[in-house]
Protein: Class II aldolase/adducin N-terminal domain-containing protein
Organism: Sphaerotilus natans subsp. natans DSM 6575
Amino acid sequence: MDMHPAPTDLLPAHRDATEWALRQQLADCYHLVDFFGWTETIFNHISARLPGTEHYLVNPFGLNYDEVTPENLIKVDVNGRKVEDSPFDGNPAGFALHGAIHAARADIHCVIHTHTTAVSAIALKRAGFGHDDFYGAQLTGRVAYHDFEGITLFADEKPRMLASLGADKHILVLRNHGVAVGEMDIPRTFFLLWTVQRAAEIQGAAGSIPGDNVALPRTISQRCADLTQQLIHGNDFAEKFFAAMVRQMRARQRRLG
């Protein structure tokens, strides 16, 4: 069974072109997270809002990320209720986080939640992300923090998570847990996740080496973050990055047979 459909897959009769394109891109995003080794077995989530609706697509609970296909993604409302028949259900632990963000932030159309080793280690540290390395500097002014309240199952935590995220942050560090990142589309969200992951890896590696780090002035790290945002939002930078990663993944799959 081909778990990695190509973008040229035929449009099913029961899908409109916009939704099918989003489903294909979201399936690619799941496969990329698996390809880079950022999965947590069958747990965690990537969601994408359907344009002009309060519905979003998310993975069926119980499948590995490389088993996600455009067709088996489930469609739910912001409360996690399925709005389309599917033999699959979602994981309730993801609905509070993803539903809250999709309902409250019109500028965020994709949310990715992970807890890789590097990211979770940073989430455990009181200081959180530093901004002195190349990738950490790109996160300056974009990171919010939310105190751990246990597994995110309960609706009463939603307003507190949203208050922690605020109206302008795109990275929510879930303390003692992991991270959620969100952007205006799937390619930009994936690029942001990649940047967060690289920042966590470098910060962890630097912390293991004796000696002081070279600190960056806030003006320099903020300039780095601002320039990155100009690149991301001013052209097709993120789309090119996402497409290149998909090509790399598929080429590796072909070589492995």
In short: Helices lie at 17-35, 92-104, 117-124, 134-137, 158-165, 186-207, 218-234, 237-255. Residues 1-8 have pLDDT under 50 and may be disordered. The chain has eight helices and seven strands. The two ends are 13 Å apart (CA to CA).
